Amino acid sequence: TDIPRQVGLAGSSAIVIAGLRALDEWFATDLSQQAIASLALAAETEDLKIAAGPMDRIVQAHEGMVVMDLGRPGDLSSHHSMDAECLPALFLVWDPQGGQPSDEAHQDLKRRWQRGDPDVTLAVEAFRDLVDEGLRLLEGRNFDGFRDAMDRNFDLREKIFHVGERDREMVALARRYGAGAKLCGSGGAVIGLPRSESDFTFLERKYLEAGYRFLRPHVRKPGLETNSGMEEA
Predict the structure, then answer these.
(1) Would you state the pLDDT for residue 35?
(2) Nearest 5°: CA angle at 210, between 7 and 213?
(3) Which of 109, 191, 209, 223 is the most buried (most CB within 10 A)?
(4) pLDDT tier at 113 (50, 70, 90 boundaries)?
């Protein structure tokens, strides 16, 4: 695979999903999207004992933009697809040096949640409200407000999660030139929203000069076939 490793882009679950799809086609079992997501999660949490949640697997099973409400533990049905036209033009940057395995980062956070760490509890509540706000901003095409919400997401994440120097640098570089940015996952990659279309070329050059990889992702619309979901620099 050419999926970047250990940068918070859900590479391991993508490989599991791909394997399940191949088995599903070979045995003609006609698995539903929800079944594929559930099996992928079970493969990692039950068989490999990895600390993981359903979010990545739901998105990969649906192959599109998905809104999720995962308030009920173990319930993978509380989600729905969303029109990708709501998304602004974004950029994705990752560190070719890689980060730590997501399981290591998530295990500590999970233990803190289970013992009722007040900082984690308050942050989760704030994330919930921020997600609702972000959804309203996207639906209203308020991309300036959404950019601010992305910045607040990172600031909130930093309060409960160790953020490495390289991750911090990727976010700081975006903010230095007026873009919003947040971590994609456990670390190693960020998603960003510039202020204008003309900023993409400038930001790409700055990130490449700093030793990072840069691409502009294109979210596929349901029902459309494509060979690639991104253009890489």
Answers:
(1) 93
(2) 40
(3) 191
(4) confident
